[in-house]
Amino acid sequence: MDDNFTVTCPYCGEEVEIYVEPDVRGTFVQDCEVCCNPWRLRVVRGHDGREIEVRRADGSE
Predict the structure, then answer these.
(1) Is the pLDDT confidence value at 56 over 70?
(2) In 9, 34, 39, 59, which residue has its Cα 20 to 30 A from 17's Cα atom?
(3) Angstrom distance (rounded) from CA 59 to CA 61
(4) Model pTM?
(5) Is the pLDDT of residue 1 over 70?
(6) How many CB atoms sit inside 10 A of residue 41's CB?
(7) Residue 2 pLDDT > 90, yes or no?
(8) How does DSSP assign the chain, residue by residue?
(9) Are 9 and 30 in contact (CB under 8 A)?
(10) Which residues pair with 17 in a beta bridge?
(11) Rounded to an integer, what distance in angstroms lies between the CA atom of residue 49 and that of residue 54?
(12) What is the largest CA-CA distance in the chain?
């Protein structure tokens, strides 16, 4: 199972590679490395292992 994911920032549109610990499940907040805005990351189980859903975490969601 891969623990590195490439995600697109919902604010600045940059692609960023992130590492998610193998035992992490559920939802957590992390800041974009490029623009420093907060993301709400949700770890879900997909067809090929874990998948990451990224959304804004600034109260506008």
Answers:
(1) yes
(2) 59
(3) 6
(4) 0.84
(5) no
(6) 20
(7) no
(8) ---EEEEE-TTT--EEEEE--TT--EEEEEE-TTT--EEEEEEEEETTEEEEEEEE-SS--
(9) no
(10) 6
(11) 17
(12) 33
pLDDT per residue over 16-38, tens digit each? 999 999 888 899 999 999 999 99
**Residues 6 or more apart whose Cβ sits within 8 Å of residue 18:** 4, 5, 6, 7, 30, 41, 52
Domains located in the chain, CATH noted = 4-56 (2.20.28)
Q: Return the amino acid letter for 18.
A: I
Adjacency order of strands within the sheet including 49-56: 26-31, 38-46, 49-56
Two tokens, residue 50: 């874990």
Q: pLDDT band at residue 60, thresholds of 50, 70 and 90?
A: confident
